[in-house]
TrEMBL record:
This is DUF523 domain-containing protein. PANTHER family: HYPOTHETICAL CYTOSOLIC PROTEIN, INNER MEMBRANE PROTEIN. InterPro entries: 2-thiour_desulf. It comes from Ferranicluibacter rubi. Residues 1-31 are annotated as: Disordered. It comes from the Bacteria.
């Protein structure tokens, strides 16, 4: 299931706010520069980083960076909100991984994801992670740039499950599953390191 966001529609695989990727050209007619871009793979990116208002509080958290603009112009970005892909609405209750655990613990069944309102949303977060991985593999993503702190997309720090604002080292469920499957995951504040790794810049 892949749907593309249009204004006013519920969707999870976004492309409308991004510049449309260049029209695909037959490989025989691709320029050396186009072939070089294709060979470098694509980058899965959190929708809220791309300016989509998909966070639990109905807001976006856009990231401005020249490398992001260039990757977008090159058609290398694949934008997803994992939580929306699993049917979660906007807005939605804040959620955290309980007990100071991490995304890997959720995948192995040793930890739960809970809402501030008391609901157990573990299965939704597992599905969100599966959707992100499926899209990444289908579209040839070798890397991911995800917003840190989220119980889905966090890759360095996440909240501790107490809804008190405390964070600890850990990763969200989607970030953990992507890493387990060989995708190189970077946090939003690591974009310079990502650029250095994939572009040698
Ligand atoms: S952090 Fe990830 S799951 Fe949360 S709103 Fe942004 S894209 Fe969606």
């Amino acid at each position: 299931m892949t749907r593309t966001r249009r204004s006013g529609q519920t969707a999870w695989h976004f492309s409308a706010a991004s510049a449309p990727p260049p029209a695909p050209s037959p490989i025989s007619r691709a320029s050396p520069a186009e072939r070089a871009v294709a060979a470098r793979g694509k980058i899965l990116v959190s929708a809220c980083l791309m300016g989509h208002a998909v966070r639990y509080d109905g807001k976006a958290k856009p990231l401005r960076h020249a490398s992001l603009d260039r990757w977008q112009a090159e058609g290398r970005l694949v934008t997803i909100c994992p939580e929306m892909s699993a049917g979660m609405p906007v807005p939605r209750p804040p959620a955290e991984i309980a007990g100071g655990r991490s995304g890997g613990d959720v995948l192995s069944g040793e930890a739960r994801v809970v809402e501030a309102t008391g609901g157990d949303i573990t299965e939704g977060f597992r599905q969100a992670a599966e959707n992100a991985l499926k899209l990444a593999l289908e579209t040839g993503c070798t890397h991911a740039l995800l917003i840190d702190g989220s119980p889905s997309c966090g890759s360095r720090m996440i909240y501790d499950g107490g809804f008190s604002g405390r964070k600890h080292e850990g990763e969200g469920v989607a970030a953990a599953l992507l890493r387990r499957n060989g995708i190189r995951v970077f946090a939003d504040h690591e974009i310079e390191a990502l650029a250095a790794e994939i572009d040698g810049s």
